[in-house]
Amino acid sequence: MFPVGTRAHVLRACLVVLTLCAVLGNSVVCPRPASALTLLTEDLPPFNFVQDNAPRGPGVDIVMEVLRRNGLAPSSEDIRVLPWPGAYHLALNTPDALLFCTARTPEREKQFKWVGPIMRVTVGTVVRKDSRLSPRQWRDLQGLRVGTVRNTVGEQLLIEQGVPSAMLHSATTPGDAVRMLAAGRVDVLAFNIHSTLYMMKQGNIDSAEYTVSMVLQKLDLYMAFNTDVDDALLHRLQSTLDAMRCNGGSPGTSDFSRMVQPYSPYFPPGSFPEERNCPRSGAAER
């Protein structure tokens, strides 16, 4: 990887080469550049996760395909999988960083530049069904031990609503947060529902014993870029993502739909952006 101080210049140089390729067309053979972005994600099934020592999941597949179609050639080895607090901090402080999949919130709006949406997430409070402490409104959280994952949207929502920090029990990883709930060390877990239920299954925790007592927010997930990343590249990536959602008038036939279909058992309807009735991309782009 290039030194941090030179990465922005490398990315701009790649854009110049790609632009010349587009203008000159077939009259010149243009090199396929390596990825000039620092790719960051977390181990957060079922959105992005590590399987067989490699990043997997719909978030990974979508991001990699969008980059590939724009002349960037990342491999799974280019993706750094880190705990969310570390990935978030690094994305804010690395000029060429791309962090995915990131909930786009008002608090984060100016911290990053955005391409998306690529998925949707529901954040809620999860409690044991037999618990007498089942919050239905924000004020019901008062006096409870609330589990969160540090620096995630669930935690930020609680802070915005005035939940005292003394009530928050922040875990570094989603798995740790789910285990806190199962062990009774917290009364309620405020986190995304998809990952909570998935990790319960993976950890042999009976999810039937738990329920979602309150939906806190539904959010779109994006590719979040460091603010130093070139705007021209971001425009191209957004146009590519939009084109991938076109189905040519035949529902279920868009490139986007085809890519996420294998993951459908883990996501209820509405978890992905809708297709669009527009011409599909040419076969040459696939």
From TrEMBL:
Signal peptide: 1-36
InterPro entries cross-referenced by the UniProt entry: Solute-binding_3/MltF_N
Keywords: Signal
Basic and acidic residues: compositionally biased ranges: 273-286
Pfam families per record: SBP_bac_3 (PF00497)
Region entry Disordered, spans: 267-286
Solute-binding protein family 3/N-terminal domain segment(s): 36-251
Superkingdom of origin: Bacteria
Entry protein name: Transporter substrate-binding domain-containing protein
Organism classification: Bacteria, Pseudomonadati, Thermodesulfobacteriota, Desulfovibrionia, Desulfovibrionales
